[in-house]
Protein 1
Amino acid sequence: MTEQVQKIAKVQTPFKRLCSQFAESPVALVGLVVLLAVIFVAVFAPLISPQNPYDLSKLDLMDARLAPGETGLGGQHYLLGTDGQGRDMVSAIFYGLRVSLYVGLTSGIIALVIGSVLGVLAAHLGGRFEQIIMRIVDIQLGFPAILVALVLLAVLGKGVDKIIIALVSVQWAYYARTARSAALVERGKEYVEAARSLGLKGSRIVLRHLLPNAMAPLIVVGTVQVAHAIALEATLSFLGLGLPATEPSLGLLISNGYEYLLSGKYWISVYPGIALLITILAINLVGDQLRDILNPRLSR
Amino acid sequence: MTAFVIRRLAQAVFVLFITSILVFGGLYLVGDPIEILVHPEADQIERERARVALGLDKPLVEQYLTFLKGAVTGNLGKSFVYARPALDVIFERMPATMELAVLAMLISIVLGIPLGLYAGLRPNSFISRSIMTGSIVCFSLPTFWVGLLLILLFAVTLGWLPSTGRGPTEEIFGLQLSIFSLEGLRYALLPALNLALLKLALIIRLTRAQTREQSLLDYIKFARAKGLRSSRVIGVHLLKNILIPLVTVIGLELGSVIAYAIVTETIFAWPGMGKLVIDSIFQLDRPIVVAYLLVVVCMYIIINLVVDILYSLLDPRVRISEQHG
């Protein structure tokens, strides 16, 4: 008996198996490391930035538009140069990452919750409710995300909360569609039938049985969607429709550098763009690998 | 088939109606256009006069009903800024956007299908792996930032191509088009390339997936067993079958290219309807914004419908059933 227990205990937990499968792709592993580094920088930006870029008293206009590597009047070394107001680009990018990641993750999580609950409910309840929800999803997904977001922001105006609302409205439909199709598959399986014949309440079946088992595809969609959300927010901010100038994300930094680009002062736009690209690329690489290992059709 | 088209058109009218209410009602809540339109030193009486002249003194519902009455007869109101019918202003800008979108689609098709085919036929070669990694990078690139890089490289550093604006236009079939002259193409190349990048990645990945799937099927094996030349098997048998899903996706993506042209046009100062709508949002020129959205939604619905019908014509296995849609 004890021997048997020990034998079972040696079997890998699903989480460990996931980790070892994930590590099979070196590219994805690099993506994960980069992503963790980006998150670290974003979380601890106030501690590791050389300068607080939004404390106007710390800025010196005499240091404006210095090229990367130059030294300011006060003796500060600007690794990536300064922008039009003498702001250190390294610090601006760290703070910008913070805003971009915050907006992307928050809107992603809210959309995930709303979308997956509605999707699973649609699969569980069926009937009129399912028809209405899925029709809205179909119509909305028929239009490009940027158009829907643009309309909402034209109406709502600027602000962190406004752009989160716009991004959630754009994204919930993807989660709803995925959650519904995953739940439809799960619903037909024996364990749900077992739960039902045990006489469990509908809410318990939805929350404790269907939702956890529909989670794998939702996580995959989630990683891709967070990358999309970050890119979309940057695009909208670039167009001047997203965040206010007091909370500049990477998109706004790139937009601020646009006017200096034609005179060859490339660093104000280019470096925030590289930061944005690295973030999105890292998320996509991780997402790609997650999709491969969580997809039962490709399982080895 | 007829029932399908009618149902889709009915749905289209419904979507248009909802869009108009949302946008019209929403924009009404945002700022007062009079503040922007009237000279800052204008007194109260002048402001009131302007308000009455634009019909902004009436309650929201009445304004909407006036709009709706006009909309049914094809009149979407007069632009506050241009003082001309909003639809005219938009149609004037539409050829610029359309030529950019078509050129971008062409670039991504001409580059994407051969690259995808290659990656699909030799999935394990080094070049195929590079193509696929490249497409992930392409997918992750923020479009607007790539636009800036293109300007920086080809216009500022190398000086080969103009950075912004549209080349000289000439009238072709009654439309003012610029891409049929060499000078016009020079202006259009960078924005079109920028717009093409995102779709390029999509077309490569789709072509590759289709190629891999189809090349394992019996009809390909049979064609090879018959002793047909490889070029014929790929160029005729395989290509024919992978084109069906591609046509659908390319059709649907044309709509999204038109929408994303908003970003590209803003970067390259391309005078299309995307740039127009961004300017109009900032100038609170409501009629233009409302009209633009309705026009784009209309185009979208038409494109989707045409693609659906085309799909059923191309692939005899797919029949549009009466229940569908």
Protein 2
Amino acid sequence: MTSAQNQIAARLEGDFAAGQLSADGLRAALEALLQDTARRQDLLYLHATSTAPSASVVAMTLVEGGAIVAPPDDPDDWPYQSALDAINDGWRVISFPNMALLALSADDPHGLGFEFILEKWS
Amino acid sequence: MAGVLKMGAARSDAAPKTHDCPATLTDTEVLDFCKNGYLLLEGVVPDEVNRLSVDYCDQDNYYEPTSILAEDWFHQHVICNPAAASAVRSLLGPHFHLPVLMSNHRVEAPFDATGWHVDGNYQFRPELNYLQVFYYPQDTPVAMGPTQVVPGSHLVKNKARFMGHLTGIRGAIPTTAPAGSIFITAYQIWHRRGQATGKGMRNLLKYFYWRTQPSARDWIVEEDFDFATVNYGSPIASVVEQFRADIKVAEMFLWLCGRHDDFQNLGGQSWPLPAHRNGAPYGLPTGL
């Protein structure tokens, strides 16, 4: 499920657990879920400490369901700690780290470096 | 305090454009600034001045309320605040130039985070010829969206337009601070406005100081400070080649000491790399 679908499901579960799930609430949630079924490309930008797919991630951005999803504040709670983690969860790499970065002077570090861009269709 | 604060008293155009005061940072504190790219002074402005500043910004809600610089109470307790000015004096040398412009990042919470960026007209160099300073006149916990910075990122080149897709960066911190806090930064540090989930107005006053004199090690010198063995490591180390951050920090620190001409990096295991050596590091500039 996407983040949006998970949020809807969590809301339903919460209302159900509290004994507050009404027919209207259930219908509204189902409508929201059905509206969220259009397929879209999700993107995951992972900045790693090296070109290795197993290298630790130092920055991430997730575009899911047509929106940018803010990651958890604590990096240890990010959904993936390496590009390999994401690949093993079904993400496809569509852009590998740009080797032109290696041509830059070692004296002048630039940006966050090794950026993997991955996609999923949801 | 009430006697000091004379609402309406204004500085004239003939008022001095520079300021001097004792330099109170130590070697270690100056080196920490080189490592981190910022210095946070918590709660150094008196409460009454904070209240006056908030009131002023409520009246002058333009994004550049520059006329606040002409207020004596603001000049005395914020611009020339003893704790902040002595830190600025340590980093920029004597007779530093005072701000000529005031910006206010004034936003009604709740609000979303902005994108990561470096401010325009940045220069990624070891020199420190100016400082960007922020003043929070009200309490600014995480819920009020304080500025977030990436410690040490002043050492790593970037372009604002290349950063538009970034959201989560490991090591980034929110500059949460109580009212009256002043936050001194290297201009080119990567930063953004954090998300605010609370309610209310957040003012963030931003201004600038410039160096007017050549750099020199005229802050508080620590007798036991050892250029050979001190750790030059920066929190940005994880995103650059190994030891590159140490080298950048050492170069910036020597520049501040007025010794940039002596800076050298002879490669490999030479100074300023951290190591357990059997004597003085190879490549340590003479006279340090």
Protein 3
Amino acid sequence: MPSSSDNSFIPKRKSTNRQRSQPGRKVFFVTIIAYSLIFASLLAAGGSVLYLNYTETQLEREVVLLDAAVNTFSVEDFKRVQDFNGELQLASNRVQNTVSTVALLDELDRVIAQPIQIENLIIERVGDQNLKLEIDFTTETLDAALFQRKVLNADSRLFTRVTISEINLNSLGAEDEVGDIELVPAVKFKAQFSVPVNLATFDPAEARRTDVGTSLQTFTVPPARTVNPTVIENVSDFDELEVSVQAPEPADISVDNETNL
Amino acid sequence: MKPLGLISQIAAIGLAIAIVVFFVLPNFTTVGEVQNEIEQYAQERERVTETNANLAALVSELEAVSVIDRTRLATYIPNLLDEVAVLRDLEIITEIAGVRYNDIQYVGETVADGQQATISNELQTEVAHDFQISVEGTYNQIKDFFSLLEQNHYPLQTSALDMTVREGGFLQADATIVTYVTNSSAIATR
């Protein structure tokens, strides 16, 4: 007997599973990617703007800090330090290049042989490099002159490259024991050499304080009074000063000592 | 989510790329430049701070120099030359050394030659002033005279010396004595 459902005039649908079409799903993935890209780019744009603002703020802060640091720099202090440093350098340079004439004379005392006399001594300083010395010697024998040349060249710490020139043999008149004048031979010669300044610099520790008179035990040369430059307050004062401070003629300021010691 | 059409998808991707290329990347470039500037400013600030610290240390060192030492320095190389005081000092020195002076006079300012120019620094220059002195005395007295010149509180350096023998065991020394100041703009008078 057929079932009642088979008798129905309504057409029956087969129970086969219909599969959905795949192309629609592919379009959806691309859409997600497109949406993602556009959102990401917008986020990146927003982030970059924020970060740019942040860095610009940081830059402004750095500029302000730099300005503050620059403003704390004191030009006056810098000038003071610079001036003081300059003065110190000048003073140091002077101290290091101070030549001791006494050291030169002491060295001459040491190296000049006994029978030889100095008639004339000329010392001339050439900048801060050398001292040129020119000495006129006189002695009785040529042997003494030769010996002196050897001593000057070999035994002196200061004197080097000694040149002996203008050797003259003369006869000079000299009083004997009775009082008669007799002629004695005389050899005159000139020695020229230079001394490096750095070898003859002044050493305070070796200053000849004790050699000088007894008053030197407490001697101090009064320092020169330095004129206070602050008295010049404006340019007009300066002009006035220049007029009034012209160096007087040497005759006006020379100190001639009329009295003998 | 509503699926986009093909053209819309391409447009969206293109827009995203355009945003990145024309906005995000330039922004990052600008950020990089700003960061470089920040670094430079920071370095400069560090240098300025360091310089300020060094200056403060130097000022502190300067303040620590006693007034006596500053006075000594100002005496050693003054700004202005008091020629009368120098002449007076030379006279006192001759008296103490026991030599007889024939003549003491101020010659004037020495024009700096090449060698003297080398000893001047860029900020301050030293100017030499010459004094001519002629003294007579025994050898030891003249040595004492030069010894006292060397021990003076300000430089009295012998730049030229001509020593000759006189009668009676005396010597005559004609010397050019040089003293220095830092500025030659004016010579003081009292």
